Each structure stands twice: as structure tokens, then as C-alpha cells.
Amino acid sequence: MEYVSTRGGSGPVSFADACLSGLAPDGGLYTPVEYPKLAPAKPGESYFELATRILSAFSAGSISPDVMAGLVEKAYSSFAHQSVTPLNQVGPDRWLLELHHGPTLAFKDVAMQIIAQIYDHLLAERGERLTVLCATSGDTGGAAAAAFAGLNSVDVFILHPYGRISPIQRRFMTSTGASNVHNLALDGDFDGCQAIVKSLFGDTAFRDEVSLSGVNSINWTRIAAQSVYFAAAQGALGADRKLRFVVPTGNFGDALAAYVAARCGMLNGLELVSAVNANRTMVDLMETGSLSKRSAIATHSPAMDIALPSNAERLLFEVMGREPSKLKNFYDSFTQSGEAELDDQSKGALKCVGVKAVSIDDDVTAREMNRLYDETGTLQCPHTAVGSASAREVPTDCVDVILSTAHAAKFPETISEVTGKTPPLPERSESFLARDEEFDRLEADLGKVREYIRERVGGAR
């Protein structure tokens, strides 16, 4: 299996190189040269078996199926539910796909736990050490910290927007006690953190100096790992049933994973709702074929407060006929003028993908959180509520599968304010509250972040 950059300046490379690099050297995102053809989930096939089969296809030539099976076992044996991502029925033809049974109570655990195992395996084979750098709007950082904490082959640097994530989200990042995990709270929003990450990856000399790698959803392995639970849901509900997946969307990585599962033949077609909050870039892109530069808006669902979803680039690469020069010109125009528009052919192709975007504001999110409690007796996180409200707003004849992306306990302040009830933290997570936090606050300054990383990586090596 080989991978190329969406911008056309890198590839083809192996799965191992694409995984360990994260972002392509030309600033593009790695994507498969060809999508593997994969059978849908088989009756009785466990999540472990399905994940092994799918990830072995994407890593062919780099990791054998036998080795991948062992990595999958290590990654998911600690999850609180044997199904890893169980389905919970909340109404007629209406299900929640629960993705919060991992160590940090969010969907990012599903991908991050296996990425850490894959990194550890590949780096041990090569006798190398890497610096992992990621920006987070809330959940990626905690998942990365938990997955990579204590690994000898990796130094982890996590950038989060100061005061823009929940205290519980922050503690999952800052309370590992691991010497190889470094947390930076930057002034500003997530997009500012992400911009610094992209700039550092674009600095070839620095990237080579510290052996930089990324595990945000820009890393293809994240997308491959997340495609598994879409296939698992299709298998659990019946291969012949038409499903509509409703995905709370920030960086568009989770939604893109559904597209990938469908492209590989693991879904019965693709009907997908990308559910966003007041940060409605995906709505504008899907409806008008255009991007406009804007600042992120703070909402009840902070992990989705993203103004420029990075993984939209992979979808646009497909609708542009996989022409990297066309995509590069589109993003160059956006960078220079703050605006970009697809040509008519690409707009038409985008309309036929099977993706619709819906924007839900905080008032509707709050009403949905209360409605879900009244209907099911369960408290749901605000991101899940955005998805659930989106499903109600757009009727369908399909079976609705709404992604429940985080445990309610990760957002106790918002849920208490909205519902008057405080969600209890699962007993397995209570130890995080008793630990000391470690993070440094910095300006959102590229030079200062670069020097911060350089000093600490140099000391470790």
C-alpha cells in the first residue's frame, strides 16, 4: 500500500513513512494511491478482528497481519466495553455509536491507542526516536498523552488554546506525570495552534532536526483506525440496512473516515451528515463550494470550535479528480486572499459525494441535551447533542447512527449549567483529578514554540 500527498509534491511512500511523517513535506495530506477493496464486517467478527483486517490492508507492506493483530490487542484491551464502540438504541431506527469507552473518555482514544502501538513497533524496528507534535481543540491532546505517555521512542508536545477547553479535557493531557509529555497552553484559539503546527512541519530544517511527526487527524492512520467503527456499526445493524451516519464535526477527520469506509466497500452506500456548531465552514463549503477565512467562535461544544477543518482537503482532493495542482491552487488562493471557490465540475462532484452539513447553535444544542435526558435518562455531551439535533433537523428514511463522541463527564460545567445535573466521572478516570498538572503557557508565537521544543528535545537526546 502506497500513499501520495494531496499537494502532489511527495510520494509515493510506504504506510510506515506516511504514518511516521504525519504531514507530507509539501504541506499536503497523505492519502492512499488506491483505496483497498474490503468486505463488510462479517457475522460474528469481533471489533479486534475487524480492526486487524482493515488496518492490515492499509498497512500492507509495512506491518504483517499477525503483528497488527498483536498491536490491536494491546490498543483495545483496556477499553471499558468489550465491543470497543458499542451501539445504544435511543429511539426507533435511532442509535448512538458510543466512542467514549477508552482511557480519556473520547472518540480520539480509538485511533490514538492503536497509533501509539504502531509507532512503538515501527520505531523499534528502525531504532529511531521521534518528536510527536499535535494541536488540540480538547480531546486529541488527552488521547495522545494517554497513549504515548512513558514510551521510550517518542517525545510528545501538545498545543492547546488557553482557557478554551474544559478542565477535565485539560487534566487528561496535563496529569500523566510522564517526562516525555509536554503541554503548552497558547493564547488564542485552536486554529492558531494548528497554524503553528503546520508551520513547524513546513520548516524542513527544524522538522529534520527534531524528527517531527504528527498524530492529529492530518495523520492518515487516524482516519484508517476510525473507519473501523463505521464498518462495525454497519455489520452490527445488518449489511443490507441503509444507515445514515451523523458525525459531530470539528476537523472533519471522523466524518472523512465514514467516506473512507464507504469507498472501501464496507458500508451500504454513504449518507452522511457533518454536524457542526456555529463554526459553519463545512456548511458553506458543501452548499456553495467556497471557503472564507474567519475566526473560530467559542461554543458549548469546544472540541468543534474550528474555523478551517483540515481534513476537508482530502475530500476536495477526491472531488477535484485527484489533481494535486488544482487542489494546491485552491489552497494557495485561500492563503493569499482569504477566499477560494471550487470550479463548477468540482462543485458538482462535491454534491454527489453523499455528505450534507448542518449547523446547530448553542440554544438548540442546550435544548437537545435536555431532550435527550428526558427521552433516554442519560446525559450526553454537547458535541453528541449537536449531532442528535442535526439528525432531527434533516429527516431520513435510513436508520440513524449518531456518533456519541465523548462522555458527558468531560464537560461537567456545561452540562450542569444546561441541565441542572452533574455527570459523574467514571471510577476508572478519577485518578486524573488527584494528580498534579504540568503545562506551560506561551504566546501563540511560532518562534517561541519552536525554541521550546528544541530545548526539550535536545535535553532528552
Describe the overall structure.
There is one protein chain. The chain is globular, with a radius of gyration of 20 Å. With 461 residues, the protein is an alpha/beta fold. The protein has helices at residues 15-21, 47-58, 65-76, 108-126, 139-148, 167-174, 190-202, 204-210, 220-237, 253-263, 281-288, 312-319, 324-337, 344-351, 362-376, 382-393, 412-419, 431-434, 446-460; strands at 2-5, 13-14, 30-32, 87-91, 94-98, 130-135, 154-161, 181-186, 212-214, 243-248, 272-276, 290-292, 339-341, 355-359, 399-404, 440-442. Helix 2 (47-58) crosses helix 3 (65-76) and helix 2 crosses helix 9. Strand 6, helix 5 (139-148) and strand 7 form a beta-alpha-beta unit. The chain has a domain at 87-105 and 220-419: Rossmann fold (3-Layer(aba) Sandwich), CATH 3.40.50.1100. Strands 4-5-15-10-11-14 form a 6-stranded mixed sheet. Strands 9-6-7-8-16 form a 5-stranded parallel sheet, sandwiched between helices.
Give the structural class. Answer: alpha/beta
DSSP strand tally = 16
Distance between the termini: 33 Å
Low-confidence stretches: none
Strand content: 15-25%
CATH fold category name of the domain at 87-105 and 220-419 = Rossmann fold
The number of helices is 19
What is the 3D form? globular
